[in-house]
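Hi C.,

You asked whether I'd gotten around to modeling the 215-residue construct. I have! Everything is below, sequence then structure, no commentary in between.
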Amino acid sequence: MEEIDVKEMDTREVNKAIKKAMKNEKVCLRNASRLHNIAVGLQKNVNIIIRNDVGDLIGALNDGATIQVEGSAGKYAADGMTAGEVIIEGDVDEGAGTAMCGGTLVIKGNAKNHVGQLLKGGTIIVGGNVGDYTGSFMITGAIVVGGDAGRQLGNSMVGGAIYIKGNYETLGTNVRQTDLTGDDKKILRELFVKYQLNLDPDGFKKIVTQEKRLL
């Protein structure tokens, strides 16, 4: 594993250093908390470890890398990700997982508003609470919330599912609450074990689109 201290680098220099070091398959960055757009658009099966906090757009457009943040992250984590994993041990700011098409985003802390808006595929797991408009306009995929949610949960979603353990302030339009199936519980249990989350599928609620009715 190659370790890089990025304290004196700008974003361009950091991403250039990452690509140069990718032959090692595991790269560790230190002192990246002030930087945005780190580890963006990676296509190789490489493991990037960030030892502290990081700025906005960590792992955006990820297409196969595993990116681990040992602290918290800014806005739009894993924006547009198509494959791979982004795992954040702390909290995240707004817009996490926006327009993801695949892969898995794991946030072990809390997340602010607009988690998974326009989700087109993949899985987002938040161990703690989420803000307003989680899952707005999502098309497919899954969002798992281990805590509570704010207003307009699942607003105008057209497909996929949201699983929530805690309470929500309000549901959005065109969605309803239902019970989990046995398969749902099995999938959740496997995710919780894989990502070492202290959660149990029992007690989760499932949010899906309203059933279409023939006129």
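If it helps when you're writing up: The domain at 33-209 is CATH 2.160.20.60 (Pectate Lyase C-like).

Thanks,
B.
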